[in-house]
Amino acid sequence: MPDRYPTKPAINGPRRSSTLQPRAAKAPAPVITTRHLWFGDKAALLAHFLGLSQEDRILRFCSPVGDRFIEKYVDDIDWNKSVVIGVFADGRLIGCSEMIPTDPRWKREAEIAVSIDAGWQGQGHGETALRLAMLAARNRYITTVKLMMLSENRAMAHLAQAAGLKLSPQYGILTGTGQTMPPTYLSLAEEFSLDARARRAAALAGLRAMWAPPSQV
Ligand SMILES: CC(C)(COP(=O)(O)OP(=O)(O)OC[C@H]1O[C@@H](n2cnc3c(N)ncnc32)[C@H](O)[C@@H]1OP(=O)(O)O)[C@@H](O)C(=O)NCCC(=O)NCCS
Questions:
Q1: Is the CB of 119 under 6 A from ligand 1?
Q2: 12 C-alpha to ligand 1 centroid (Å)
Q3: Which atom of ligand 1 is nearest to the CA of 115?
Q4: Beta strands in 14-163 (DSSP E)
Q5: Tens of pLDDT along 113-166?
Q6: Which of 6, 93, 135, 138 is surrounded by the fewest CB atoms within 10 Å?
Q7: Domains and CATH numbers, the chain
Q8: pLDDT in the model for residue 41
Q9: What is the CA radius of gyration of the chain?
């Protein structure tokens, strides 16, 4: 018996929807936060410095340094005096800036240093870290900030100039020097809201991880 309802030949090929593949899940953009580092962050800070390539270590410390030097450097940080700001990507420390008062009597002068993990450079984190270190200096009535860099460190020289520091060369080292403004309520509020924002981001990340389907955890 002939089939009364023969299957219609597909005119335009199989239905479009059947050819659609599920979209590859896009990795969410990392959550970048900045906050003050404290004594308890020593291990993360050490890991960040030890993770710098030999070339970046030379640029950061203005001479080739080994692991032992870096361990001692982190051990010697005076957490009551220096302000260290960390840049985090999804909770992992990827860079920092340090504001180290250098004038023991008047405490009006400080040195600033910045470092960002190689994989995160060129994305504006160095600029943010430098700006926050200068903000920390301003909020502590430090009037003069200095930043030393090797003369071949074009990225740092560019950032220092963009932040208003004047560069002067001497024996292969460039010193960027700048004056800061006195603090205002706004500058104080900006600095002290950093930690609250970072805590809120950490809490949200924790909640997201808790509610994510098991396949995404
Ligand atoms: C220097 C350093 C902190 C910069 O961090 P970063 O996250 O790459 O900096 P940013 O992305 O915020 O900005 C880099 C800027 O330098 C510019 N730059 C990069 N390479 C450059 C070069 N060769 N010449 C001129 N400008 C350059 C970029 O265009 C960018 O400027 P823009 O924002 O106006 O475009 C980072 O490279 C680092 O950690 N280096 C090793 C440690 C170090 O050198 N520390 C400084 C001594 S304290």
A1: no
A2: 55
A3: 39
A4: 32-37, 83-89, 92-101, 109-116, 144-150
A5: 999 999 999 999 999 999 999 999 999 999 999 999 999 999 999 999 999 999
A6: 6
A7: 30-206 (3.40.630.30)
A8: 95
A9: 25
